[in-house]
Amino acid sequence: MSRRIKRMNPKPRSRDERDDSRPLKARSAKKAGPRLGGKPGAKSPRFASERTERRTPKSAMEKLAQEKPEPVKPVEVLLPTKVETVKVTADENNMRVDRFLEARFPGLSFSHIQRVVRKGELRVDGKRVDSKDRLEEGQSVRIPPLKLDTPKAPNPQSEAAQKTLAALKEMTIYEDDDVLVLNKPAGLAVQGGSGMTRHIDQMLEVMRDSKGQKPRLVHRIDRETSGCLLVAKTRFAASHLTGAFRSRSARKTYWALVPGLPKPKQGRISTFLAKEESEDDTIMRIAQHGDEGASHAVTYYAVVETAGNKLTWVSLKPVTGRTHQLRAHMEHIGHPIVGDPKYFNIENWQLPGGLQNRLHLLARRIVIPHPRGGVIDATAPLPQHMQQSWNLLGLDASRFDPIENAPEE
Question: Which of 334, 268, 266, 270 is nearest to 297 (CA)?
Fold first, then answer.
């Protein structure tokens, strides 16, 4: 299998331009607190034209944490006791199947929704569907009997709910009435899985509103990856933000530490990826066009700084959003991400002393149009284990990030 790396030739920048275009300055979690579009009074040269207004975030979680909450009554949801057929409304057009069920029947667990869809008990126009398939207005949806008891809305007066609320507040990078951006810590899963009891989706239960609706995940990042995670607090925001991801209007930047020095220093990785499952693990393998389950994946990378010839700090911009895309692509070009338990397979490679053997991958920045106008521009600080590595290797997190010059497609 051959590697496909295309050299990038960004337009040279003058010294003055470089000095004025440092959008990825490292800042502490406090300095990177709720905001839209960066520091007050400062405009990012690249996105200034897109910012039509500056928003003052309203921290709903902060209010909940400080005010004395009132008991929340359980949300009464009538679950079907026999097979029902319903029509997709205009408001539900282009909604994912799993989100459709979640909206119709608040309180149904993620695992139960997935099981109903997987077994083919739910059908659209008489056909089996996947939970990620999107519905169209007017389609007929067959809904099977749902016999699970509707979970009660969490009592915000409970100690556990207060701790969860405080944990979410601590993670918050940006918040307003429609959108929440979290700095997800490494090791915390975004969604539940086998034997998993604590994850972001479960934690968001404490933010259910009076109608039983809770904030919705807009995208996902791997469990061991830290950084920016976008959450929609309303159905309106969820529709617009997922649309921005589908149209590739969302711009994501990741930072990683890899062994060796990638050549060329800036390039494009284009492959097909397919899921390979075994009894013990699931990984993404490089595939060929036409292979079963293969999807095209494109990533731009750029070397930011090196520590001798042993380790390199790279910035990554995924154009597509495949599972494990960045991790599989860096392994494909011979520079797997340091601490990656799935894809780091260099024999006899020794981790330098003082560095932790944890995944060195950060969802550094996300820039996406706000559902009500303007632009959300959120940046996550280096997690503790990566900050330790940057300090030991003498890497300067305030350096200009050359990935800014990478194309958007």
Answer: 270
